Amino acid sequence: MWRYLVGGLATLALVAAGVVLFNRSGRSVAALPSAPLAFAQNAADGALPDSVPQASDRTREQKRFDRYDKDRNGAVTREEYLANRRKAYAKLDTNHDGTLSFDEWAIKAETKFAVADADKSGAMNATEFATTAVKRKPPRVRRDCPPVGAAKAEASEGDDS
Fold first, then answer.
1. CA separation for the pair 37, 10 (Å, rounded)
2. Annotated region Disordered: where (predicted)?
């Protein structure tokens, strides 16, 4: 009888260990940003920081709206909305007649091909073709405080004098 009891308890322990191992968060503590130096010093003293950082009330769409609203009157006019598109169109319209012919449009494609075809063979290999991909900007990482390592380096430089 005691064998069944021990076996049951061992099974429960294994199941609990499996739940703990497989249900933990994918983020580790090392992936979290480190605390600013001033906060770390206050935390070591047991004191709280003097002020709490405030989050911005502006959303991504509000920021986008403000980029388009050039005269800051709270409304995006047709001209403001189309300004960037007009600039791009004007770059393609080489003879500035207000119409975009196929030849004017094809100049950009021809130029892009000529630049990518590094060996001037008239055909692009896989490496050359990869250079024609649209370059996307990486997501911007926003940090209001310098990394802890930089703050420590600045503090140690100040101690030397």
1. 46
2. 135-161
